[in-house]
Amino acid sequence: MSSPLLPLVDRAARLLDRPGRVVLGIVGPPGAGQSTLTSLLLASLAARLGEDTLGHLPMDGFHLADVQLDRLGRRERKGAPDTFDVDGYVASLARLHDFPDRTLYVPGFERDLEQPVAAAIAIEPSVRLVVTEGNYLLLPDGGWERVRPLLAEAWFVEVDDGVRRSRLVRRHEQFGKSPAGARAWVEAVDEPNARLVSATRDAADVVVSPGLGALA
User: Fold this and answer.
1) What are the tens digits of pLDDT across the range 6-23?
2) Cα distance between the two ends of the chain
3) Which class is domain 3-209?
4) Whose CB among 32, 77, 151, 153 lies 3.0–4.6 Å from 28's, allowing a Cys bridge?
């Protein structure tokens, strides 16, 4: 395990000192690296606690499918707060607490298709710590305000804006956009969303720096 990650693994593991099931939220603007941190954290926690103890509930699985975005006229804003099924996401988080003895099936997100996949992830009754990650976990409105009370802690991942934007351009190019189209999408869609998310930084319990150090 890399040493900068160790304090975060320790902190996440200590959440299990609380009774019942706990949910850790990892949030950041588009391209900040919250999914990478989640993967590293889950792998390290699995080695320490066992895979059966851990679950993953990504917010991305609650993207509205393109057919719904077309119906709503939001396809060109895909990734904005109102292009997700926030009610379904909140209901799934609530069920983690309300029905811990039942298997919870939640959607995943297929990057190659850029579409949600129903019931792709199962969270079993043995799971005590669930990590959920996404952009909008700390938004104060639009239905997202119901997320924070369901989290034991929220961690905010931040990185230099230039680095973050470069990552986003590369990601969009990898999934088929031209270089010019990728840059245009980042400026028109991703960056307004990033500004919304960055405004929620102070609501987090921990800020995770680019080197994976934690700033309380």
Assistant:
1) 999 999 999 999 999 999
2) 22
3) alpha beta
4) 32
